[in-house]
Structures are given as structure tokens and as C-alpha cells.
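Your task:
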Amino acid sequence: MLNQLLYERGLLGEYVVVGFHVSKENLKRTIDGLKCIENFIGAVITMPFKNSIVPLLNSFEENVGFLQACNVILKRDSNILHGYNFDGLGFVNGLFKQGYIVKNKVCVLVGAGGAASSIAYQLLQEQCHKLVILNRTEEKAQYLRAKLLKLFPNANITLDVVNLTYIDILINATPLGMNTTDLLPLDKTHIRKAKLVAECIVSQEKTKLIEYAEQFAEIHLGKFMLEGQLSQILDLFLKDTL
């Protein structure tokens, strides 16, 4: 998809994105090698290396340190590799491009894993009014809440959705919805409180959650998170080269 964006900008050929398959054993050697390639700008990092690449970087953004996960590296001067995490940024950017804002909104986030943590971090950066974190394993939600409060001590973060009378933005950041047989990620009673229901899953155009929610609320598809992320990544790669 990055090459498609390059094509749309008339830059494909001058720049190109190529894929590399790297074993766990060769990750460090690969990173060291990338520093020596003069026409290397940056790379998108996918699983299973989002976590293991962090100690190999020379520097990284605050959210990478918080999440201990990186999905983009950029080569700076003197062969310095700097790490970024665009999962949360991509989600919020996708909302903005569809005309939605996060500031002063009541947000309910279902999930407490890697993508959910990145989204939670960014929602607080964008000054949401209240963040409710829900997870099948409540201990994980409690752990994420405690971590976030260390960075955002004045934030309004709870694990209680029962007492909410309305939800501005409901976000599914769990795998539920990837399969057609999956259950809804949240009880229908709470889903119906939402003004906007947002999905992070991209493998299905419309998940069961989206199909249910579009009967009474605005919907936001998972593809917008991916599109928002890719455009930001490409802007980063091209910033100092054009």
C-alpha cells in the first residue's frame, strides 16, 4: 500500500518500498546492516519484531518507550536509527480525516493489548475527557490504567462502563470480529450508548460490531486506521528527502 501511495504522489521509481524476511537470529545483524546502506530511509516493522527491535534502536519516541513496541524506524544522520509507533497516531489520524475529534470526548476502549495500549496513549494525548478501558481479563485493563496514570496523572481513566449514560466514541481494539463466528466485543446494552462506533480490524470490511452499530450510530471502519497510519509513515520517510 505504501508503493500505491508513492504512485499516487508521482514518486514511485524514485522511491520504492521492498519487503525483507528476517529470522529472529538475524535481526540484530539486519539492523546493523541497514545503518550502512546509504540510500536506506526507513522501514515498517511488523510482528514478531515490534517488541524485540526496541533495544536495538539508538533512540525512540516517548510512546515507544511506554509501549515497548515499535512499528517504524527512520535512519537519521550519523546512522542513527530512531523508532516510532504509529498505531495510535494512525487511529486518531483516521478519525480526524473522517471529521471526528477526540478532545473532550468520552471514549470507551475495548482491549488492553498492544494496539489498544497505543490507542489509549494517543487518546489521552489528544485530551479526551474520559477513557474507559474494558478487557476480558480485568487485570490487564488495571495494569494498563496504572501505566497510563504514571504518564497522565490527571487523566480520568476508569474500568466502569455500567454507569455511563452515553459514549462519544466506542473503539474495538480486540481480535473479536476477525471471524464471522466471533461474538460482539461488548454487551449490546453498552454498544447502544455510543454515538460513534469505531473498529480497528481491517480483514473484514464490516465486522459484526459494525453491522450491528450502523443501525443506530455512526460507524468508523478499521481501514481508516490503516490508511491514516500509512500516510503518516510516508510523510515521515519523505520529510527530509524532497
User: Anything to note?
Assistant: The beta strands are 42-44, 59-60, 72-76, 80-84, 106-110, 130-134, 157-158, 167-172, 194-199, 218-220. The domain at 88-225 is CATH 3.40.50.720 (Rossmann fold). The chain has two domains: 1-84, 88-225. Residues 22 and 29 are 10 Å apart (CA to CA).
